[in-house]
Design a protein that fits this description.
The chain is mostly helical and 123 residues long. The protein is 71% helix and 3% strand.
Length: 123
């Protein structure tokens, strides 16, 4: 189960790269247009603010990659760091709602799986 979670986390981390690329205008498509607003257009961060937010997306991607490696190697810290990364990712995803609604669902599933795994003893 640990390997399945690691795969899910690395894929979810890769999805975070879209937020980084969009906010730094590295990749713009009709599905992911450049914008400087969050909270469904209610808050405009401006160009500098959206780039800072993009760095947060990149850090979340790196964190998921790190915890995926930790899970594969069965380190003692991977589950707690994964939970922290999922919560931080959930906050980012909520700020970018509704575009990131799939990310919200994935984060909630990861958090629930990690909590159940801790209780069951397989995390």
């Amino acid at each position: 189960m640990r390997i399945v979670i690691a795969i899910a986390m690395v894929l979810h981390g890769a999805a975070h790269l879209v937020g980084f690329a969009e906010s730094w205008q590295l990749s713009m498509t009709e599905h992911v247009p450049y914008k400087t607003t969050v909270l469904d257009g209610r808050l405009d961060l401006g160009t500098a603010g959206i780039r800072v937010a993009g760095v947060l997306w990149l850090l979340a991607a790196l964190a998921f990659g790190l915890v995926s490696a930790g899970a594969v190697m069965d380190t003692t810290w991977w589950a707690s760091v994964a939970a922290t990364a999922a919560i931080a990712s959930l906050v980012l995803s909520l700020a970018w709602w509704p575009e990131s609604r799939i990310g919200v669902a994935v984060n909630l599933a990861l958090i629930a799986t990690l909590a159940m795994g801790r209780r069951a003893g397989w995390v």
